[in-house]
């Protein structure tokens, strides 16, 4: 009898490739003021990230469960939509992809243009608590969009790349002035490791992870309730499985920044 679970080894490879392409395309924007004529345009930056996510989703989503964001992966794990083993593999791939992309950009970019590789930092005048709240809010709306577009009953799956990409763009428009906008711990970790700058780095893990978990609770318990005694028994098996269940397919077509 064939197993109902999908292997994730190949998908983790796709996930790693997607993270490299995504960060390589988005970390090129932070030109220093003397070369760009001023600070990077927030609209330019926001559109770059949003379009990159939409394209990665459209191009790699057909290859399987593609996640570019540990916060999204955590939300799927918390919602019993994937196994612990799968989540770990995805997060390892995401982190390795982010570090590889940041290292690649540093190696091919002239020092006078390199800047800080898009390092996420808390803006002066913004407290760390405020920064965590901002990151929590923008990640919250991102994960809600992921869940909504991947719910077959909602009929939005075909629009997933556009909707999730727009969500990423919105998050950046809101948060750039506060934190540079992470929404994605791996995206923040790559430049931090390459530049050896971890000042307030914890903000970019606690904020997105908290927002992702709150979004999971909101969607599964309030917006689209899906928990009962029977479903808990059945779906809890996913946590100890070797992959992800094809139901409710919320992980499919979600390439999220």
Automatic annotation (TrEMBL):
One GO location term (cellular component): plasma membrane
Organism of this sequence: Erpetoichthys calabaricus
InterPro entries listed in its UniProt record: Aquaporin-like (IPR023271), Aquaporin_transptr (IPR034294), MIP (IPR000425), MIP_CS (IPR022357)
Family, similarity comment: Belongs to the MIP/aquaporin (TC 1.A.8) family.
Membrane topology note: Multi-pass membrane protein
Domain of life the protein comes from: Eukaryota
Name of protein: Uncharacterized protein
GO molecular function: water channel activity
UniProt entry keywords in alphabetical sequence: Cell membrane, Membrane, Transmembrane, Transmembrane helix, Transport
């Amino acid at each position: 009898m064939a197993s109902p679970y999908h292997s994730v080894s190949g998908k983790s490879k796709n996930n790693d490739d997607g993270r490299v392409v995504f960060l390589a395309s988005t970390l090129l924007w932070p030109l220093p003021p003397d070369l760009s004529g001023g600070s990077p345009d927030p609209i330019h930056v926001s559109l770059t990230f949003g379009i990159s996510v939409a394209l990665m989703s459209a191009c790699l989503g057909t290859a399987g469960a593609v996640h570019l964001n540990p916060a999204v992966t955590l939300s799927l794990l918390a919602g019993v939509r994937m196994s612990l083993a799968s989540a770990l593999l995805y997060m390892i791939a995401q982190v390795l992809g982010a570090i590889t992309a940041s290292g690649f950009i540093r190696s091919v970019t002239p020092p006078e243009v390199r800047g800080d590789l898009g390092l996420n930092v808390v803006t002066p005048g913004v407290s760390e608590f405020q920064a965590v709240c901002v990151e929590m809010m923008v990640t919250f709306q991102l994960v809600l969009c992921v869940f909504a577009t991947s719910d077959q009953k909602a009929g939005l799956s075909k629009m997933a790349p556009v909707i999730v990409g727009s969500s990423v763009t919105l998050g950046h428009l809101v948060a750039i002035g506060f934190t540079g906008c992470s929404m994605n711990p791996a995206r923040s970790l790559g430049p931090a490791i390459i530049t050896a700058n971890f000042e307030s780095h914890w903000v970019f893990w606690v904020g997105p992870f908290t927002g992702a978990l709150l979004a999971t609770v909101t969607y599964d318990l309030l917006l689209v309730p899906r928990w009962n005694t029977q479903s808990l028994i059945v779906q809890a098996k996913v946590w100890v499985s070797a992959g992800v269940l094809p139901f409710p397919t919320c992980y499919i077509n979600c390439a999220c920044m």
